[in-house]
Amino acid sequence: MSKEKEMKEKEQAPEQDNSKAKAKKKAKKGKGEQTAPLPVLLEFVFSFSFFILLAVDALVAALSWSNGCTMTDIFIRVVVSTIVMSIIIFMLARSISGGMLEAAVKLREEELSKFQQSNDLNA
Question: What is the pTM of this model?
């Protein structure tokens, strides 16, 4: 009987440790990792680009099918159009994101310089 109790206690111990570890991870996520939402322009660009990619792929597949292509040809055409459109969309989103990041950095630098100037005047 004592061996069975020891076995049950050993089986329950890891479960309790796992639940404690999960609770700690949730507490850390709630406190430390607060993410800000993306700006509206970036959300629009990412969402719109996804829908354009789907529309172009559907158009390529429909036009290929209507012209009597085999399924293999349709698949290859859709894959190629997806790769090309993804590269174009990636470059567009990267340039927009980079521009918004530069603008945010310049804004912060201006705020910091104004703050430092006001502190210099007060000192």
Answer: 0.57
CA–centroid distance for 56 within its chain: 23
Same domain as 95, residue 71: yes
- What are the pLDDT digits (tens) for 6-46? 666 666 655 555 555 555 555 555 555 566 676 777 788 88
Indicate the angle between helix axes 71-122 and 40-66, nearest 10 degrees.
Answer: 170
Query: Looking at the structure, do residues 6 and 64 belong to the same domain, yes or no?
Result: no
CA separation, residue 96 to residues 90, 93, 107, 108, 120 (Å): 10, 5, 17, 18, 36
DSSP, res 67: T
Domain count, the chain: 2
Neighbours of 64 (CB within 10 A): 19
